[in-house]
Amino acid sequence: MDLAPEQKLHGFTVRTREELPEIDGTVYVLDHDKSGAQLLYLRNDDNNKAFSIAFKTPPADDTGVFHILEHSVLCGSDKFPVKEPFVDLLKSSMQTFLNAMTFPDKTMYPVASTNDQDLLNLADVYLDAVLHPAIYRKRAIFEQEGWHYELGGDTEAEAGDSVAGDAVAATETADGSARLVLNGVVYNEMKGALSDPNSVLYDELQAALFPDTAYRFESGGTPRAIPDLTYEQFLEEHRRHYRLDNSYLTLYGDLDLDGMLAFLDERYLSPVADEQAAATGIGAEGAPLGPHELREQAPVRALGVKRNMATAPENACAGLGYVIGNACERTRMTAVDILIDAIAGSNEAPLKRALLDAGLAADATAFFADSLLQPFAVIQLRGLEEGGAERFRPVVEETLRKLADGGLDRTLVEASLSRAEFVMREREYGMPDGVALAMSSLAGWLYDDDAATSYLKYEDDFAFLRKALDEGYFERLIREVFLDSDHMAEVEIVPVDGDEDAYEEERLAAVEAAMTPEDYVRVADEEAALRRLQEEPDSPEALAVLPRLSVADIKDAPEEPAYGPVEDASVPTLRHDVPTRGIAYAYRYFDLDRVAFDELPYVAVLGLVLGKLGTARHTASELDTLVNGKLGNLTFFAEIYESETDPAALAPKFVVSSSALTENVRELAELPREIMLETDFSDTGKIKDVLQQRRIGMEQGFANAGHASAMAHLASYYLPAGVVREQLGGVGFYRFLKQLLASFDERAEEVSARLADLAARLFADDALTLSFTGTDDDYERFLAAGAALGRTRPEDGVRLIAPDPVALNEAFIVPTDVCYAAQGFDRRAFDAGYTGAWQVAARALSYDYLWNEVRVKGGAYGAGFQTARTGNLRFYSYRDPHLDDTLARFARASEWLAKFDPAAEAMEGYVVSTVAGFDTPLKARALVRRQDGDFFGGRTPESRAATRAQMIDADAAALRALAGPIAEAVAMDAVCVFGSKDIIEASDAGLAVIDLLNE
Question: Are 52 and 127 in contact (CB under 8 A)?
Fold first, then answer.
């Protein structure tokens, strides 16, 4: 359906219409006349449709009220009075994306689906959630998602027994053993998030740059300030900001626009406009009720800002921030983004290389902080050396002055511009296009009603910037943004001894000092009331109101693009018949079966340094510019493919991943080939830079995404593949890395020699399988340019033999305030085969049992259960304030599943959502990688189809039958934990405690 400007339809008036080649479609901006809501419709033929509603939400303090609201409004509404409609949708819909996000100045609620009715259902639940949330009649939602007090060890209150809780509270008060604790999902999430010194640095930079605006506050909330938020303030902020005249709606894809607009107007926009107009409009202090102002910050220069943080010395860091201008200056923002990539996007970029060579820190990075009223550039040092902060700005300014005075290489900027064009053409956003584009639109639209499409356009910007390359534009930009800036900040994070959580203990002590015995009883009663609410099941009447799809709504499986071996190829080759938007993908897989186990860490190092060193034909800097300008991506890494039935049958590969626009297919063949065959490993200084950067990245990953580290290390307790992966990228590799760096100068020549030897042994045609995606012409040109390497492996008798897995049950202390726990085992050890029912069970356990037990009751930010075709069965928790309680809840999961007996509609929901997840559309790169994985793992398209059919056929009895293997897995008592010192040392789980960064 096409629309014309000024056309009226279902209460909307079309403001603008324009063709937008960047989305292969047409864009409309509409105004809802009655409510003041604005709507952006991005029309194209994408079947992965999307809807979003966003609100401008600039914070007025650090309480994280908008973050807590983002969580809370999805806990029931007037039309859908269930406890967790968000989770119910995860369990029952065909969604391809379902989430909510809090940004520094906005809150967004996007959904996506390939099914028209499902998208309508998702929009219905989300709109009622944000406009009619249950928070006004259920204070417990605020307490659960935000914060509340509990009495530590009060098992009666935890069980919801307020009478027994009263007695225990009174007794504990009398003998002095009562212990007040703070809990809440957002509270615990932000404790984990702000354990990261990089996050703290960013917050301090933003506060220094914008001392008089909303951006000085942490929109997610700080643990110090979150408990200052009252329930009344929480409700008032919702009334202020979740207004239709403060809303931004987006529709995307090939959808029924007439039906969607009618639905929006009749069900929500017009009636809610009447409701909001009838509201008093007066806040708690008698002021008119409206959104907080979002205004520009006058220029400031904040130099020498220091923030002490109780964290490991290795976490010392510093940052420089430079405000670039106003969001309406889109071309300038695009240019700065490209400039930052050109001067600091790699180790050989001139600014980053100058910072590394100056020895200020282990790593230097730079990035563009956008989607703000005043975007800014950040230059950051990580792993700061003594005296590095004082020398930081002088080195930056000296280097940038040289670049501005004629030292900026045109080809360097042109290469970054080409890379940006590739990224925009590929559209590999990691989420549905409609969701990503809705986010992008708000980068301009939030600040200017006429800029809804501004940040969706890039072709004209790229054309202008290519022309500007020869006009001194980027040199002027360096001066304006960095050298002559009157709006910048300089911040250092200084590690100190102490407990970053000390403020919590001080707060609790102060509260307890003022508490009477009656106050303890009240806390116990409130906790018991919250637990009862959490335990109480939704009524059948409430559940019946939720929109649902049935198994009958599942369509035929999406057609699997053809792929398979090429006959008579010069090297073993897989071809993929996948549409690529003018991009060619080449993956070279080299067998690792002739590498010794103790050489695996060097294989990982090889992957880290390839492409970052010079070759026989090019310096490292020249090669970096060539790769950036001619290829879309080029990465090197090891990967292990596993058999579905035999744990010992591994197919370890070294992967050379590359892509390019079709006009650069020759370089797609030649540049990776040059790097593989001709890299000069003698520059040990550059090798050391890369290793230091990897060490820092791993340490921060342990603290910020410890669940991934815990699950990976857990697998080494029972899977041969896990043992191998540990050597390539887990704790085993981290320990190797630390030891190597500690004596690197003495071992530098040995490292160079081992890397050269590995490269000579790995990169050979008899070890190679090529995977190629592109047109026939692309493929022929790729072959002609040199797909084969022209050499074979020497027969040296070396073979990869992994040691047997051993369950060590370790708890690794890392610098964080929360905990990440993992427990599991190899399902095949109990003769439990794989069927599609396992994926349905994983969804039920993750979004029902674990969500309620570990997240809702326990206060963890996340928890889940996963099982793979290749045997790995595991539980995990994420940003969790507990350890022993969580392990006990993992242990009870099999008992829950053994009694699993959902209503017929609920069971169908689990099946529908599981199949939808299996069928989720993939972009070309992800699809090719999945097909390659299937090939090396011995899986066929027929086996995928069989798994899908098993999902559809799964019933409650099939899921209950899986409880036994889960119980057996938990009984093996294989546990791995990453977390805070306090949580781990207080545990009675009997784990081997290791201070990982200091061992």
Answer: no
pLDDT bucket at 501, cuts 50 / 70 / 90: confident
Q: In 80-134, where does DSSP find H-type helix?
A: 85-92, 116-131
Q: State how far the Cα of 290 lies from the Cα of 55, in Å rounded to an integer.
A: 12
Place of tokens 């830079």: 689
What the block records as the tokens of 422 is 């590739």
Nearest in space to 654 (alpha carbons), one of 576, 763, 753, 734:
763
Best CA proximity match to 384, nearest among 316, 308, 320: 316
Average pLDDT over the chain, rounded to an integer? 94
Q: Distance between CA 277 and CA 523 in Å, rounded?
A: 38
Q: Is 56 helix (H, G, I), strand (E, B) or coil?
A: strand
Work out the pLDDT band at 165, boundaries 50, 70, 90: very low
Cross-strand pairs, 774: none
| Contact criterion met (CB below 8 Å) for 594 and 799 | yes
Confidence of residue 160 (pLDDT cuts 50, 70, 90): low
Q: 274 CB contacts (<8 Å, ≥6 apart)?
A: none
Distance CA 440, CA 455 (A): 6
Q: Residue 658: helix, strand or coil by DSSP?
A: strand
Q: State how far the Cα of 883 lies from the Cα of 818, in Å rounded to an integer.
A: 9
Phi, psi of 603 (to 5 degrees): -60, -45
pLDDT tens digit sequence for 854-881: 999 999 999 999 999 999 999 999 999 9
Tokens of 886: 């969580």
Report the percent of the chain where pLDDT is more than 90: 91
Q: Answer whether 56's CB lies under 8 Å from 446's CB.
A: yes
The single-letter code of the amino acid at 293 is E
175's tokens = 């003998």
Q: H/E element holding 20?
A: strand 12-20
Q: For residue 156, what is the DSSP state? A: H
Quote the tokens at residue 248: 């931004």
Determine the residue type at 659: S
**How do 148-151 and 180-183 pair as beta strands?**
antiparallel
29-43, 272-286, 330-344, 345-359: lowest mean pLDDT where?
A: 272-286
Which token pair is 330?
A: 């889109």
Classify 988 as helix, strand or coil. Answer: coil
Q: pLDDT tens digits, residue range 478-497?
A: 999 999 999 999 999 999 98
Which residue in 509, 681, 506, 652 sits closest to 590, CA to CA?
652
Q: Which of 555, 860, 819 is nearest to 709 (CA)?
A: 819
Q: What is the distance between the alpha carbons of residues 603 and 874, in angstroms, rounded to a whole number?
A: 28
Q: How far apart are the first and last CA of the chain?
A: 65
How far, CA to CA in Å, does 563 sit from each of 172, 568, 576? Answer: 68, 16, 4
Kindly report the number of other CB atoms within 10 A of residue 963's CB atom: 18
Residues 6+ apart with CB under 8 A from 301: 485, 486, 487, 488, 489
CA 404 to chain centroid, in Å, comes to 36
Tokens of 162: 């307020």
Which residue do the tokens 């639209």 mark? 445
DSSP bridge pairs for 864: 876
**Using an 8 Å Cβ cutoff, are 462 and 420 in contact?**
yes
The first and second tokens of residue 880, run together, are 């969790």
* Tokens standing for residue 781: 């040109």
Contact, 230 vs 284, CB < 8 A? no
pLDDT at position 960 over 50: yes
Measured CA to CA in angstroms, residue 414 lies from 147, 343, 405, 409, 514 at distances of: 50, 12, 18, 9, 65
* pLDDT single digits (tens) 646-672: 999 999 999 999 999 999 999 999 999
Number of alpha carbons in the 13 Å side-chain half-sphere of residue 728: 25
Q: Which of 479, 500, 313, 482 is closest to 388 using CA atoms?
A: 313
Nearest CA to 31 among 245, 258, 256, 276? Answer: 245
The pLDDT score that the predictor gives to residue 301 is 98
